[in-house]
């Protein structure tokens, strides 16, 4: 693959220019023409790599979106597969490990994850938090059923309140990444945030 200005392959330079443009303007307002121009290539040459701005954005963030989503789904599955009697004992542990894994991954791929979280409006990646909220809602309902079977039923939780609390939890978590909190501070905040939300949910569920 040809090199541009000795700074890397053409594809690497396209990605570097695209990340800068997307981070500055967001996906919707980013200019494919500016990206191509900054790399020093023609639009026709660019289309030899990607068919559209959307395909370019997906090439940059796609695998990172899938990691975050799949890591969260895996944690939910691991928890659901535990014996019912064990679930109340380890609920906080499994969710904590998952959040720390996502936090560390995001800090290793900070630009790409910030693109997903704050610059992806107009793409399918903009719904990451909403997807995670829906998965968490389903997991919460499944856990309530486990508690019922254990003879520890939880009171009815208003769906609107449930959605607000879960959405707030994810926004709180991802704010650490968006604002590039020093990692050690972010780890401490995650620990405190988990303690806060765990205590709140236990209270609401009457546990």
Structure description:
This protein has 207 residues and is mainly α. Helix content is 75%, strand content 0%. The chain has nine helices and no strands. The chain has helices at 10-29, 32-39, 43-46, 53-80, 87-108, 110-118, 128-149, 159-178, 183-204. Helix 4 (53-80) packs antiparallel against helix 5 (87-108). The relative contact order is 0.10. This is TetR/AcrR family transcriptional regulator. Residues 31-50 bind DNA. Keywords: DNA-binding. Residues 8-68 form the HTH tetR-type domain.
Short description:
With 207 residues, the protein is mostly helical.
Give the helix/strand layout.
Elements: H1 10-29, H2 32-39, H3 43-46, H4 53-80, H5 87-108, H6 110-118, H7 128-149, H8 159-178, H9 183-204
List keywords for this structure.
elongated; 207 residues; mainly alpha; TetR/AcrR family transcriptional regulator
**Sequence of secondary-structure elements:** HHHHHHHHH
Low-confidence stretches: 1-6
β-sheet strand percentage: under 5%
Query: Main beta sheet: strand number and arrangement?
Result: none
Radius of gyration equals 21 Å
Give the integer mean of the pLDDT values. Answer: 92
Assembly annotation? single chain
Protein name: TetR/AcrR family transcriptional regulator
Organism: Blautia faecis
Keywords: DNA-binding
């Amino acid at each position: 693959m040809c090199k541009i200005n000795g700074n890397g392959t053409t594809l690497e330079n396209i990605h570097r220019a695209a990340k800068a443009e997307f981070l500055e303007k967001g996906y919707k307002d980013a200019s494919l023409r500016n990206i191509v121009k900054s790399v020093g290539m023609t639009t026709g040459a660019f289309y030899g790599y990607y068919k559209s701005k959307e395909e370019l954005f997906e090439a940059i963030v796609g695998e990172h979106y899938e990691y975050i989503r799949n890591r969260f789904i895996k944690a939910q599955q691991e928890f659901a597969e535990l014996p019912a009697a064990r679930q109340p004992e380890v609920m906080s542990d499994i969710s904590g490990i998952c959040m720390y894994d996502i936090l560390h991954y995001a800090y290793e791929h900070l630009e790409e994850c910030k693109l997903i979280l704050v610059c992806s409006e107009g793409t399918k990646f903009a719904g990451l938090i909403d997807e995670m909220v829906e998965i968490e809602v389903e997991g919460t309902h499944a856990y309530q059923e486990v508690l019922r079977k254990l003879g520890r039923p939880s009171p009815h939780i208003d769906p609107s309140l449930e959605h607000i609390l879960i959405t707030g939890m994810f926004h709180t978590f991802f704010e650490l990444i968006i604002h590039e909190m020093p990692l050690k501070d972010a780890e401490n905040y995650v620990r405190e945030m988990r303690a806060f939300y765990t205590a709140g949910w236990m209270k609401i569920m009457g546990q």
